[in-house]
TrEMBL record:
Organism: Todus mexicanus (Puerto Rican tody)
GO MF entry, a single one: oxidoreductase activity
Keywords from the UniProt entry: Electron transport, Heme, Iron, Membrane, Metal-binding, Mitochondrion, Mitochondrion inner membrane, Respiratory chain, Transmembrane, Transmembrane helix, Transport
Protein known as: Cytochrome b
Gene assigned in the entry: Mtcyb_0
UniProt domain Cytochrome b/b6 C-terminal region profile: residue ranges: 18-53
GO CC field: mitochondrial inner membrane
Length: 53
């Protein structure tokens, strides 16, 4: 079992062709952070307008 876990968690063990997969990844920070901030601001404005008017 220990040998199996060692080979399973080795770097590159899930990529037998050796193709770099970093190029298909979308970075988290600029896209999702802006989307979440805009959504939070919209909900905050809607709730504030409901509570204050």
């Amino acid at each position: 079992t220990l040998v199996h876990l060692t080979f399973l968690h080795e770097t590159g063990s899930n990529n037998p062709l050796g193709i770099p997969s970093d190029c298909d990844k979308i970075p988290f920070h600029p896209y999702y952070s802006i989307k979440d901030i805009l959504g939070f601001a919209l909900i905050l404005i809607l709730l504030a307008s409901l509570a204050l008017f």
